[in-house]
Amino acid sequence: MAHIPDGFLSATVSVTTLVAAGAVTAYTARRSQQELDERAAPTLGLATAAVFAAQAVNFPVAAGTSGHLLGGVLVAVLFGPWAGYLVMTSVLIVQALIFADGGLTALGANVLNIAGIGAVIGYGIYASLITLAGGGPRRRGLAAAVAAYIATVLTGIAAGIELGWSEVAPMRLSVGAMASVHALMGLAEGAITGLAVWTLARKRPDLLHPSQAGAPAGPGRRVILAGLGSLAVLAGIFSLIASSMPDSLERVAIDLGFADAGTEWEGALFPEYRAWLPGFVGKLIAFVFSMALLFSGAAAMFRALGLARSAKES
Amino acid sequence: MGFAHLDRYADRPSWLTRTTTPTQRLLIAIAAAFAAGLMPPGAWRALVVLFGLVVIGVWAARLPLGILIRRVAQALPFFLLPALALPFTVPGPTALEIGPLTASTHGLERAAEIVLRATLAVSAVTIVISVTRAADLLSALDALPVPRLVSSSLALGYRYVYVLTDELERTTRALKSRMGHASRLRLWHARATTLAHLFVRSHARGTRIHAAMLSRGYRDSLPTLNPAVDGNRVWVIAIVGLLAAVWLAGMIEVMA
Amino acid sequence: MSASASAKAWEVEIERLSFTYPGSRSPALSEVTLSLVPGEHVAIVGPNGAGKSTLLLHLNGILEPDNGTVSIGGLSAARENLPEIRSRVGLVFQDPDDQLFMPTLLEDVAFGPLCQGVSSDEAESRARDAMQNVGLGDVDAGRAAHHLSGGEKRRAALATVLSMEPGVLVLDEPTASLDGRGRRQIADILRARPQTVVVVTHDVEFAAAVCRRIVLLDGGRIVADAAADDILRDTGLLLEHGLELADWLRGSVPRG
Asked: What is the domain extent for residue C218?
């Protein structure tokens, strides 16, 4: 579901995402090689095989449907963001060539969405949460679960944006649809990732990537959490207000040329859906998005402050 | 398609395998996938020409039609389902009504186009993948501007995916026989734990493989053997050029 | 059987080797001294945890001794000599899947020569010779090792080091999980090797079948070093160090 097939993306979007993904891949290859030296090939090769094997495992949901792990955050927690990106990219290449899961023309987009957002940004969210809340096994598991969930939703949003830019469907429809689907998929991804990381943190903490620092010490933590808490509440209120005005959003969309000027669509789905989509899903998207941004941004900021303070003291 | 079936038809001699090296074949597949996938909406005639080229490709590779159909059928759900949503969301004159839903002609057209484009792209890749050995495909990837670390990850990943999958299957089977009527939550926890163990074992195996590599003189990159076959450059350039031309024709067709 | 005629055989000198794993309280190896003349076949037997595998890993520099020295053919196994040492010593690990890591069997067996700097064609020819030598000349070398049986994989792993034309062959548990026929095939191959051979094994009868000299290792120390027949006859010694002969399982264990 997360993979975009052939035939949907426009030439511009396809080429742009390919070039961007190529650049990031070159960078991560260099970083991983630096970090791992000659261990890089066997370590990452086996990790790639492990992701394939892991993706085949069934997690039954209900009546024949089952969830599967994508694995972006899991490999990032184990090998760091850059090696994690590289492993997921390798997996995506094979999926596009051998399994037709994801098109070759969409490879750039899929790499950016699943490897870039899944591994790199997912790792950022995880590391920020660990920095704030501390590094015990249960917290790591929870942080990984939350990071995997948010990253999955963001992946869906990104795919929706790429589809919207390709003019396959109106932007808010593609984003809304993809985000909703991924909001559901993310539950499985989050749960599986969280449980797996919890086990790893308990049994083999030495295998987790070392760049995850522990929590900053001291009374400042309470202040930080209180501050973040209030920011999150504000963000939530803001998104509620924004999404209760669907008409204004629609007007903006028309002005930007995403929707047809003739709003009386003869082929419209239901008349009500235009209000329904920006309403609930828009709320959800805005909320998740702002939470993710806020957590990562604030944590990074405070971590930087903390590091600067400890550097001054030493 | 699955990893297990990768090499089944890889050794039948055909015009394609005689005239092209695996790398050249991969380039053709990529060119064809892009020509099909990036065809602009409305370029029907160009798509038809492309369809003809794919048919010729199937013949030139002596690919059994059943394989192609099966592969496309496997890939179908990925693009057919999203494409089917389009007729109901693209504005235009009504084509038909299904209960409360109305489909527009423009939407149906767009959906059909997407399905055709995706099918052609998947077919082109299938032709090349099916008649090329997995190991040759991996070294073909090496020749493309893919970072060294990615191609060695793919090579090792291919070699060990069977081993790890076997180990994992054994573990989950043992688990299933112990869990009986366990709740779904317990099952998820147990399976997630086996995934954790999978990564632990893969890490250990990676360390052992590294020791084996060092013992045979490994320094920093996996060495390769020279390929056995020579390909006909002229034909390859001609085919890729033809595909590019068809795509351009499609672009022009739409702008007119 | 061409390659065996030109194979060298190096002497192996281990002098007061001591080693403790980082973080471990007791030493894995203490003052191990062992000397092999060129072409000698020696088996190292002992109970689990005796330090046998640890000793092997010192022979090609994967582990470095805390004290003492290792030299192969007069060349010390110091860090600057490791590339040459690894050409002289062919180490075959316990799990053949750890040594067969390339996408095709041919690339696996050619890996060593290629790392040694040999040309691609020469590496391929050495690889084919080595596979012939272990009885795998008819196997399709263009596929991954996954398709081979357990015994074939073990012989393939041996071929991967034979292609490097080492003067010393070192094998860690070569008969683990092999059936009777597989065991015999390995025994026949090893007996015929002109190189210096060191075999680590639990399988005391196999040791006596392949090697004229047996070294008994326990607790990181050499407790006996004598002709194979003498060691086999000394039931008290075997019992004391956790070793048993196969037919003792049926009847009562004889008292020393």
From this structure: 12-242
B200–A265: do the CB atoms touch at under 8 Å? no
Closest CA of chain B from A89, distance in Å: 8
What is the residue whose two structure tokens read 């081979």? C148
Least confident span in A118-132, A184-198, B237-251, C162-176:
A118-132
What domains can you pick out in chain A, each with its CATH number? 11-28+46-305 (1.10.1760.20)
Enter the tokens of residue A180.
């909703």
Is C92 inside any structural domain? yes
Q: What is the mean pLDDT of chain B?
A: 86
pTM, 2 dp: 0.85
* A6 close to A103: Cβ distance less than 8 angstroms: yes
Best residue of B97, B130, B149, B181 to probe chain A, by most A CBs closer than 10 Å:
B149
From the list B135, B139, B225, the residue facing C144 with the nearest CB is B135
| Domain CATH for C219 | 3.40.50.300
ipTM metric: 0.91
As given in the structure block, the two tokens for residue A82 are 């850059």
Radius of gyration of chain B (CA): 23
pLDDT in tens, A243-253: 444 444 444 44
Q: Residues 6 or more apart from A310 whose CB is under 8 A from it?
A: none
The identity of residue C158, as a single letter, is L
Q: Quick check: is C153 in a domain?
A: yes
Q: What is the pLDDT of residues C187-200, one digit of tens each?
A: 999 999 999 999 99
Q: How many domains does chain C have?
A: 1
DSSP annotation of B63: -
Within a domain: C250: no
Q: Å from C34 to nearest chain B CA?
A: 21
Contact in structure between B57 and B124 (CB atoms under 8 Å) = yes
Neighbours of B, requiring at least 3 CB pairs below 8 Å, are A, C
Which residues in chain B have their CB less than 8 angstroms from residue C90's CB? 215
Q: Work out the average pLDDT over A234-261.
A: 49
Q: Tell me whether residue C249 is in a domain.
A: no
Q: List Cβ neighbours of B3 (8 Å cut-off, separation of 6 or more).
A: A98, B134, B158, B161, B162
